[in-house]
């Protein structure tokens, strides 16, 4: 069974009631909530998975999903995720990281301490690699600390691409020629592969933001980038993700959300922190809960 997003599809009839049942199933596993207005998007992907598994109807596919669960669920989730991302996306938050956030964090730590930064969801890797590049280029203290960067996503296909680190021009559009020249090498198809050293410096793992058990493996992050995923969730999943992320942060640690996402509307656990470059959210220092 292939796990490509754009496989060939054959038309099978899927009723509104079946779409609803399916969306409920996907929602419970991922937190992603699709409205009826996304019917075309849903039908296309479902039809592709029905064809890829050789099922002859929605009903047959849905039964398969519930029996041969793990493998097909992985393919299904991979086909429904929206992986849009690029290097130096919302650069003002990267600026805020080196102009304000890290200086505040290290003011409470010894030189040589480990700083943990999490990019979740990291999609195909552009975000954690951007964090690493930005730090090397813009944070004078970079060599004084042991910096660990972890990139996590629910989508295993995106994670494989992240580990490979090969990008086309669109992903690199915000990077200067100088940076591309110093950190990437040209590979076939006009693409660019990020340096092996950088690839090895980031740990890529699968994690589901709304799976509390899954999230319990991750602790003690100083800074979390959780950008452009909460927009796909409904209020209940957003709240659950926020609570899970809170537990993954050290007291005093910060979280950056996407520009159209706001923690204030989701959870009272975080304090709003306004810096010259960005508004971010902080787990209160006094709270060691
Ligand atoms: C639009 S991308 C955002 C990537 C990056 N953070 C950025 O802002 O450019 C959204 C990502 O969220 C991931 N995702 C969706 N549901 C998730 C969940 N429950 N847990 C972890 N990642 C999830 C998708 O696989 C996709 O890669």
Q: Which features does this protein show?
A:
289 residues; alpha/beta; three-stranded antiparallel beta sheet; 11 helices; disordered N terminus; binds S-adenosylmethionine
Architecture blueprint of SSEs:
Blueprint: H1 16-30, H2 39-52, H3 58-67, H4 69-80, H5 91-106, E1 114-119, H6 126-138, E2 146-153, H7 156-164, E3 166-167, H8 177-183, E4 184-187, E5 191-194, H9 196-201, E6 202-206, H10 212-215, E7 221-226, H11 235-248, E8 249-257, E9 271-274, E10 279-282
Parallel strand pairs: 1-2, 1-7, 2-6, 7-8
Antiparallel strand pairs: 3-5, 4-5, 8-10, 9-10
Helix pairs in contact: 2-4, 3-4
Radius of gyration: 20 Å
Describe the strand arrangement of the main beta sheet, using strand numbers: 6-2-1-7-8-10-9
Task: Report the principal-axis shape.
Answer: globular
- Give the uncertain stretches in residue-range form: 1-9
Distance between the termini: 45 Å
Q: What do the pLDDT scores average to?
A: 94
Summed up, the helix count is 11
Strand content: 15-25%
Overall helicity: 40-55%
Protein structure class: alpha/beta
Task: Specify the biggest β-sheet.
Answer: 7 strands, mixed
Order of helices and strands: HHHHHEHEHEHEEHEHEHEEE
Total strand segments: 10
């Amino acid at each position: 069974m292939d796990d490509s997003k754009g496989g060939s599809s054959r038309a099978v009839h899927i009723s509104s009631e079946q779409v609803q049942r399916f969306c409920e199933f996907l929602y419970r596993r991922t937190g992603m909530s699709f409205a009826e207005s996304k019917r075309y998007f849903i039908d296309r992907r479902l039809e592709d998975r029905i064809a890829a598994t050789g099922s002859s109807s929605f009903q047959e596919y849905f039964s398969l999903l519930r029996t041969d669960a793990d493998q097909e669920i992985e393919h299904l989730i991979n086909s429904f995720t929206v992986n849009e991302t690029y290097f130096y996306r919302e650069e003002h938050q990267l600026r805020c990281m080196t102009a304000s956030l890290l200086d505040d964090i290290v003011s409470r730590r010894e030189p040589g301490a480990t700083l943990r930064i999490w990019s979740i969801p990291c999609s195909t890797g552009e975000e954690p690699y951007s964090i690493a590049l930005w730090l090397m280029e813009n944070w004078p203290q970079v060599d004084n600390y042991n910096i660990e960067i972890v990139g996590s996503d629910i989508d295993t296909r995106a994670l494989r691409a992240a580990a490979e680190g090969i990008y086309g021009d669109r992903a690199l559009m915000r990077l200067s020629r100088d940076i591309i020249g110093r950190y990437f090498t040209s590979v076939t198809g006009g693409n660019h592969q990020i340096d092996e050293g950088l690839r090895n410096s980031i740990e890529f793992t699968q994690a589901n933001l709304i799976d509390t058990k899954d999230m319990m493996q991750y602790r003690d992050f100083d800074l979390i980038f959780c950008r452009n995923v909460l927009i796909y969730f409904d209020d209940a999943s957003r709240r659950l993700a926020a609570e899970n992320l809170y537990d993954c942060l050290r007291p005093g640690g910060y979280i950056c959300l996407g520009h159209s996402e706001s923690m204030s509307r989701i959870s009272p656990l975080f304090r709003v922190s306004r810096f010259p470059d960005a508004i971010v959210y902080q787990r209160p220092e006094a709270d060691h809960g």
